[in-house]
Amino acid sequence: MKYLKHFYLLLILTLGILLGTTVNSCRKHVHKPLVIEQFPVQVGNSWEYRRTFQVVVFDTVNNDTVEHPLIDSLHEEFKDIDKLAGWECYRLLHLLFDQGHTYPETRWYAHPDTALLWIANSRGDISRIVEGEKFNNKILCKGTTSFDSPHALQQYLYNVRYKNFLSFNFDTTYCSPPKKLFVFPLTINKYWVAMTDPWLEEREIIEEDSVTVPAGTFNSLRLKITSDWMEEFDLWHKWIADEGIIKDTLYIRGIARDTGGNIIGYFDAYDIYELLYFNLETKRYY
């Protein structure tokens, strides 16, 4: 009986040790939510992106599907610190290489540790819309706007992303009030209003996500953007990590018409920026 008692005590002790080990092991593997404290703003930091634009036209009348892919690239780099209208701003060079043409812009951002505020913008001297490949007897319609080429639609998506709330001139123009690109710290369910004029744009962190792009795999937060200019099927998401914006994808759907104005189907358009590599301070990442 004495030995049986010792056996039960030993069994209880062993189970306790195993249970404690399991609990400690679970505690070690508890996932800590991702929190992004600020945007990596520093003079010399740069990012290279591949821009993939694709429009797919579904001609349901003639039972025809046509795809139009376009590949461009984008370079962004913080060049200096300036003082604009009382703001200490980081000057960003935004250089879009689009169908053999270069579109330079300068942007100024402020308060990178509490928010990333878009303060001002200045366009370069090359800004004309380049005519692209024409659709064969097809016109794409988004609301009241029509496009007769893939490039015209691509240019439209670029404008609604970046420029329509700014003046179209070659002087420096100011966002009044500044557009709130990010409000830190970023965590899941963080919500804010980016701007209200000329349309309302709201932003919300909806989930933590592991995203793979040519530059690698990043633990990131997925940002959902909704705006008054967007329609029922439109989707806009950004993925942001400690290293900056990793991916940016915009999807829209619209109506396809023939040159006579008759509806012949619909189109899907995808505008995607993916990080190729980046340079933060003295380290280069590929």
Brief account:
The protein is mainly beta and 286 residues long.
- End-to-end CA span: 69 Å
Strand percentage lies at over 45%
Topology pattern, helix = H, strand = E: HEEEEEEEHEEEEEEEE
Number of domain units: 1
Low-pLDDT stretches: none
Helical content band: 10-25%
Number of strands: 15
For the biggest sheet, the summary is:
15 strands, antiparallel
> What's the Cα radius of gyration?
25 Å
Total of helices: 2
- Tell me which oligomeric state these chains represent: single chain
Q: Helices and strands: which structural class? A: mainly beta
Shape: globular
Average pLDDT across residues?
85
Characterise the protein shown here:
It contains 2 helices and 15 strands. Helix content is 14%, strand content 55%. The protein is globular and about 55 Å long. It has one domain (46-276). By secondary structure, the protein is mainly beta. It has a 15-stranded antiparallel sheet that branches.
